[in-house]
């Protein structure tokens, strides 16, 4: 039976007919108005989620709970955590939660305790981090490494990139401030710019790739090795040993590329790429903030795992976040989702969530292989809130699209600094966060005197939002935040009956690019007649080849 046909879905459809006629302003003016925040916000440890600006009532939540029950959410949670093969199209479990289990835990997969493997790996990673921090990892000329370049893309880039920026205030062990850079784009522009500024003698590259076949990453890695070769006259083997660490699920491919065994860090095929920053893919994070900070991040994520596993529907942050998203998408017909952090340290969170949510749930085929007839993942995008105010908030306030927003902000910042200007800047940012979510919800009718304004100055409101308030951005609370979103994505996938852990939609384009590379490299006939492409592609290819000959 399709989720569409469940009694709960039908009841929600009926309820939505009424709720579509109800403005958020009315919900704040009604009898429940003063208690709305108290009854519609939930917290766990360092996170508070305010759902009171969502277009929901207690009835909505009860019906969503019934839908979660009809879809057997609790069973699915149990299957996720126990290592059941829930990624059926790739025939494996999705066990990113195992990466943050505390030491001495037990999780058996094929009768083998994978929690133990995780901690062996963490120890290996810790010893690499220690060597580098201690200045004992030296480049080909004997100078200690002081600069790290992570080469990876997608899940092998976005998580560590986001975390390194988010946790800039977390201090590495005294005196071991490394510069950490990230290179992902295949066109070479990032690496070309970066190499110009770096010293080959003191730069260490981490080649991060679960598959170790991703052409974007391997071409950047080859460029890096070529740069080292041009700068030195030592053997490639020495450059590989002193200047490269490999992080991958494929030891064999790392060997083939030339990464020595003791410079390799492994992880497992049961860790999805976009769920991998908790594994050795997180090495740049550990290098940036130190191993204790990295472990605190894992602990925060583990605390969220336990909360997700055990908290009842009414108190469960990821469940509520996911189900209210389903309400917006499937019942209020909202198909755009803006991620708006009010803290510059979270500038990479939107890009991270774009991959996490859209690569996981951007699907239209059910677990049973049927085309589904309801909406799944919305279009997600975002920007640091204060900057977005000067860019796309015009559309949020006065455009024709309904958009749901997540406002994300830490309550405390700069408290330890003796700089009242910076402290005031933080309050300014919070004031803007509160003002924008208030105006989006209530419209200008909440603001005395604006009702009479000309129509082009009016704000209709009724744009729903969730505010995620973090006590303070620390490795621990950051771990909680990211695990919150991971589980939210899982909850939605259960309701939509899709597999969130595969990504077949990214494969064919890569293969087609390989075919198109041949004429561009002149390895295949360059005349149109002999090539099998469509007329647009042929036209563009010919134009490119012609221009390249000029
Ligand atoms: O092309 C998509 C993808 O497979 C992502 O799922 C993944 O995070 C990224 O490419 C990088 O893959 P890898 O870590 O194997 O290089």
Automatic annotation (TrEMBL):
GO molecular function: carbohydrate derivative binding; glucose-6-phosphate isomerase activity; monosaccharide binding
EC number from the UniProt entry: 5.3.1.9
Active site: 359, 390, 510
Enzyme's top EC category: isomerase
Pathway in which this enzyme or protein is active: Carbohydrate biosynthesis; gluconeogenesis; Carbohydrate degradation; glycolysis; D-glyceraldehyde 3-phosphate and glycerone phosphate from D-glucose: step 2/4
Classification via InterPro entries: G6P_Isomerase (IPR001672), G6P_Isomerase_C (IPR023096), Phosphoglucose_isomerase_CS (IPR018189), SIS_dom_sf (IPR046348), SIS_PGI_1 (IPR035476), SIS_PGI_2 (IPR035482)
Alphabetized Pfam families for the sequence: PGI
Catalytic reaction(s) noted: alpha-D-glucose 6-phosphate = beta-D-fructose 6-phosphate
Keyword Transit peptide part of the UniProt annotation: no
Similarity annotation: Belongs to the GPI family.
Protein name: Glucose-6-phosphate isomerase
Name of the coding gene: pgi
